[in-house]
Write a structure and sequence with these properties.
With 216 residues, the protein is an alpha+beta fold. 33% of the residues lie in helices and 23% in strands. It has five helices and seven strands. The chain has helices at 15-18, 46-61, 149-161, 172-194, 201-215, and strands at 66-68, 78-81, 94-105, 108-114, 117-126, 129-135, 141-147. The protein has a five-stranded antiparallel beta sheet with strand order 1-2-3-6-7, sandwiched between helices. A two-stranded antiparallel sheet has the order 4-5. A hairpin with a 5-residue loop joins strand 6 (129-135) and strand 7 (141-147). The radius of gyration is 17 Å and the shape is globular.
Length: 216
């Protein structure tokens, strides 16, 4: 999620160690992994910790406050977040593994953007209050009662894990207003497919299946 949570720094590998893992990058709409329903994680190891460190780096680099695993082409039920968007505010960093939302209350409308849809934003209505349970990288159970902006961030990222984008929650009128921008992403992606610069859907799904088998 693009916006202006507690895995401590000690839980994450150093930048040097994380660079040994598969290099991640943020994928853009309409990449098929963004529509893939993420699978629960059953095993945490150094490789996964390395990916998490990279996800934080990418989130800050692109001025976000949240980033889901399928936004970096990984099929796992995991996201990272820091609602301040400030890399110096490490105490606000959280890693959410296998998050579950409950006790939703109220409604709120606010502007949202997405790191997988850069320069696209719209008003989205979501629950105002939520309860979230998840595990951190050490296997500790986290429980939070959240409201307002932080609740919006978590709901946005959990949507990603369910294969949903914030654009799916827009009215027909609001969607029409950004339709031209979405079409530009679609044309660019198709052009890259035609030129052999992007991987086919079949190969993407096969890769995701291999990654799931290794950890879920």
């Amino acid at each position: 999620m693009r916006w202006p949570y507690n895995a401590r720094v000690s839980q994450l590998p150093s930048r040097k160690e994380s660079n040994r893992a598969l290099a991640l990058q943020i994928i853009h709409y309409p990449h098929p992994t963004l529509r893939h329903v993420s699978k629960p994680i059953r095993r945490v190891d150094d490789e996964l910790r390395g990916w998490v460190a990279q996800m934080f780096d990418l989130m800050y680099e692109h001025e976000g406050v949240g980033l889901a695993a399928n936004q970096v082409d990984l099929p796992y039920r995991l996201f990272v977040s820091n609602p301040t968007g400030d890399s110096q505010q490490r105490k606000e960093e959280h890693v959410f593994i296998n998050p579950v939302i409950s006790k939703v209350k109220g409604r709120q409308t606010g502007s949202e953007g997405c790191l997988s849809l850069p320069e696209v934003s719209a008003d989205v209505t979501r629950s105002k209050q939520i309860h979230v349970e998840a595990f951190d990288l050490s296997g500790n159970l986290l429980e939070f009662d959240l409201e307002g902006f932080i609740a919006r961030v978590v709901l946005h990222e959990v949507d990603h894990l369910d294969g949903k984008l914030f654009t799916d929650r827009l009215s027909e009128t609001a969607l029409f207003e950004i339709d031209g921008l979405l079409e530009e992403f679609e044309i660019d992606y198709q052009s890259r497919l035609d030129a052999g610069e992007a991987v086919s859907d079949e190969r993407v799904l096969a890769r995701l299946a291999d990654l799931e088998a290794a950890r879920t």
